[in-house]
Amino acid sequence: MYSKEHLPELGEFLRECRAQLSPRTVGLPESGASRRVPGLRREEVAQLVGISTHSYARLEQGRAPVPRSVLAALVRVLHLDDDQRDHLFELAASGECEPRRRPAQKVHPQLRRILDELPTTPALVLGRHLDILAWNPLAAALLTDFDRIPERKRNYARLLFTDPAFRELYLDWRTNARTCVAHLRLEASRRPGDPGMAALVGELSVADADFRQWWAGRQMTGLRMGTKRLRHPLVGDLTLDWDSLTCTADPTQKLVISTADPGTPSHDGLLFLASWTADPHTPARDAAA
User: Fold this and answer.
1) Which domain does 72 fall in, by range?
2) Full-model pTM
3) What is the pLDDT of residues 79-94, one digit of tens each?
4) Which uninterrupted H or E stretch holds 6?
5) Are residues 52 and 118 in the same domain?
6) Domain shared by 114 and 196, yes or no
7) What phi and psi values does residue 170 have, to the nearest 5 degrees?
8) d(CA 285, CA 289)
9) Are 287 and 154 spatial neighbours (Cβ–Cβ below 8 Å)?
10) Are 240 and 120 in contact (CB under 8 A)?
């Protein structure tokens, strides 16, 4: 059974991409006459893609899926970057409707073992919806005591937008928060109709005006790696590079690690925190612990 729940979002994404272009950008002559709407007209996009205006209008109205033969042309005509292209392909992908209820996600055993082998590197395992499935002691010392948070509330996006202490850790909170929203948007496009995602987005939209604005804006940003700056109450300012590694056995789980260049104050700060939390009898924790 084909799922149609994502089609309105696909149509809105196409409209927003079209609005950001001008005739000059795509090689069309400009008449000089004022336009009623920003960007290209539907008929101009349809002409460049090679389909009828009626067919293209149905795509933007969320009334039809994007044919595979049209996807590559849309990427070219709308000048999509890599992240936007990936997002379009996720939204356009057909497939079986997923069950509306899923069992509670558990950290993959191999990722747990990796956490145990990273005593001087803060590391988390994030699952669907950015739920925090597991962490090592240094991640807890760096970010927050995850044990104090009820399991059903243990979610990175929720903490970033609703926990004042967690939020204040980030010197560049807005950058990290926008990246978080973009990540959630990609997750939502992969599993349209997911009730857990819908509940989380609804909760955060009510709780935080920035989240509400950024979610509505649908901006796509790079999500694979980056830099974050923290102000830790014990070790001061830290500049850390983060990267995420996808679990092959379960692609919905990602190991997120933070590192610093050796010899820098940030690296020394991590080593201090690691020594402060060092306990050979304290393994990595997970949501079921």
Assistant:
1) 7-92
2) 0.67
3) 888 778 877 887 877 4
4) none
5) no
6) yes
7) -90, 115
8) 6
9) yes
10) no
